[in-house]
Amino acid sequence: MILLYAFALVAGIANAFQAGTNSTFAKTLHQPFLAALLIVGVSALGLAAAGLASGRLAWPSASAFGAVPWWGWIGGLLSAVLLMSQLFVAASIGAGPFLGIIVVTGTVTSLLIDNYGLVGFKVHELNAWRIAGGALMSLGVLLVALF
């Protein structure tokens, strides 16, 4: 279990750098949409390499594809929204405010997702402690953005 948390920590660090690297890539090319396509291509190559190296890359059956719920197919579009916000927004507002907005919005959204058990998550009902945590995160982002 500790390795899973360590991987999540590494992903958080990568997320903090990603907005800047992707934004710089787009500005340098002067082609944000091409930059986004190239970034996704590099991501696909990295995922393919990791899948092959781990022996966990295989093509599923047609019935497995058919069993995916409708909302399982929108992850790529959601990733595109995040990527485009990195390319068009992050450099303009700064790393701290951008990442803060992403983290707080994600946290508040995750509270609602958990409360209602959306998109495959188990229900984890809202309570005063979880609401207080979301409020404190929001206050923290406000402080980072203002100062």
Automatic annotation (TrEMBL):
The keyword Plastid does not apply. It comes from the Bacteria. One of its GO terms (cellular component) is plasma membrane. The keyword Transmembrane applies. Residues 1-19 form the signal peptide. InterPro entries: YdcZ. Keywords: Membrane, Signal, Transmembrane, Transmembrane helix. The chain crosses the membrane at residues 32-58, 70-89, 95-116, 128-146. Pfam families: DMT_YdcZ (PF04657). This is DMT family transporter.
